[in-house]
Amino acid sequence: MSKKRSLYVTTLIYSIVLIAGLYSYLLARSVTSVLYATLIADVVMTTLIFVASIGFNNSSLYDPYWSVIPVFIVVLWMRELHHMMWIDWVLFTSVFVWAIRLTMNWITDFKGYNHEDFRYVDFRKQFPKIYWLVSYFGIHLFPTVIVFISLYPLYFIWTNTINSPMYVYIGALIMIGGAMISYVADHQRRIHKLQHPNQSIRTGLWQYSRHPNYFGEVFFWFGIYISSVSVGVALSPIVGFVSMVALFNFYSVPKMEDKLLQNKTDYQLVIDTVPRFFFRKPKAD
């Protein structure tokens, strides 16, 4: 399937899934709270994407979920919790900027459903008999739960009283800053790949972190947490951010580095000289 046709199909599927998600939310809302009704709708939408993934025999259909569905959830919470003031739109705009950036990044790198993410291919090889079980719980449902928990600070804000609005604005700046870091890092990576396809990148942001695009993503979620401090310091809002740090540092980064070590003969030098995740001064060669 060509990239163009794959994008049309993806748009159609996600449109149907969003309608189903709204319907699921309305049904669940009649018997439970906004938070749990949203979680139920989120799981329903994830399951529908999973079913479509089986149909296409490609788990990469889930990839846009990470950036598309959070916007739906945020709009739903703003509407249901009656938060449409200026400060609420600041939060929404920050999330929307991040979502547009990440979705456009996915579209740019997307090759069509003739291609599947290398991590999912590895799962197929590692768990051939139970791959779709692993796909549902590991590729689809687990990230959905992590993102939902990481969005929770916004719900926390909108169900409590803001005492220090300054933290909302600081958080918003961090969110947009994280999205911009990821944008610049991915742009630099693409240019480098065109000019030096066989060389590992060690210029721009990539000289201060081996994964500045991942760092920017985690920084965005840190901004969401910081926004919740406007209500007060609490344990529950930070769980999502900690989960994101763990996800990227214990899975995403090691998996990507394993691939780069296999594909780039000079990547060990990058590991030896460039900081792993957080931005720091690089070591001398």
From TrEMBL:
The chain crosses the membrane at residues 7-28, 34-54, 84-104, 130-154, 166-185, 218-251. InterPro entries: UstE-like. Keywords: Membrane, Transmembrane, Transmembrane helix. The keyword Membrane applies. GO terms for cellular component: membrane. The keyword Transferase does not apply. This is DUF1295 domain-containing protein. The lineage of its organism: Bacteria, Bacillati, Mycoplasmatota, Mollicutes, Candidatus Izemoplasmatales.
